[in-house]
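Cross-check.
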Amino acid sequence: MRTTQIHSLENADQFKSQLLIWSQQFDDVVWLDSNNYEQNHSNYEAILAVDAFTSIQTNFDGSFEMLKEYQTNVKDWIFGYLTYDLKNDVEDLSSNNFDSLEFPDLYFFQPKKIFLFKGNQVEIQYLNCVDDTFEEDLNDIQSQPESFDCSPKDKLSRRISNDIKIKLRIHKDEYFEKVNKMLAHIHRGDIYEANFCQEFYAENTSINPLETYLKLNSISKPPFATFLKFGDKYLLSASPERYLKKEGDTIVSQPIKGTAKRSENISEDEALKEALSKDIKERSENIMIVDLVRNDLSKTAIKGSVEVEELTKVYTFDQVHQMISTVTSKIEETTHAVDVIKSTFPMGSMTGAPKISAMRIIEALEETKRGLYSGSVGYFSPTSDFDFNVVIRSILYNESKEYVSYSVGGAITAKSDPLKEYEECLVKAKAMRTVLES
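Predicted model, tokenized:
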């Protein structure tokens, strides 16, 4: 059971900054931030969950059944992540590529302390076993620096080093070769589309995770930003994409396919946005994944309830324009929330079509195990509603191994030009690289 308090905030942004600094003392932290981005399907502007009371950690084998049992038995808020490699629990697939990040395939925890933001109010929910710390915690939070920049060094040590050298796991010529192999699969009819990803990384590198996240978020201001800490492992994400949401009997999926760069020149920026909306290749990429999502949702949907709410609508973010579609469905009251996720995982925007063939080809051509990249972070509520993002535009960090990584990818279709695909990857990678190298 939880004790709840609601507080009005004079300065919500300041309180959020102080709260994030305060949260760094815990081993388990999930911060989800919409950056006040206006969207149709949203419950909270931001959420912080800290300090595990119970938790579950698994490899891929039987992971969805274990999560289902855990979520059913806890009947409370749980926060965590699903790695891309849980595909091996859903289908007869494997993940044998190089992995230097070493995130467990699945991790969820039941937090002792939760902060839910709406407007100028924060709803604070503590498990009864710690509800005697409300006043002490609030005083501690409000005694933190008002922003990270003015925090004393003894509060948050080790700032980002300025000599981070980013390396490429796949070099440009090799990238072209691999894309051409993927195109050969497409022309042979093995697949219609596949999302091909490459890793950028830095070894023997220490960063301050919170500082890195704040810089990345300030550049991008996306609607699904995430700071995740799990022991010595961190996710610092500026994701613009929702994977899947459940609210009552309604399921919402919002795949992104189609990217265009921004311009500081207003008229040129509008022209880039307009060109993206009419780009035949980008639209076909998006529509193929919409068909895949419709098929995935139909596995648990009430017959005839799958609908395309928005098709290939262009949204603008600080770094890029993105083409997003919204697909919804209705489910029976008896359908388990975890079964909805399992039947659609991994998300189509990060795999391709047909899904299983695309995932096999991806595994053969990529050099790195995806892990949490192109997986998902989110939460289940006590009523079995949920909301999960897609882990893209993200920096992953293993503090113990001093290993920093970010990956980017793009959809390869019959109309793909390897050079343009490579250039699109660099556009997507710009924010992460800027943050790490500046």
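Residues 418-437 form the longest helix (20 residues). The longest strand covers residues 46-58. Passed to J.P. for a second look.
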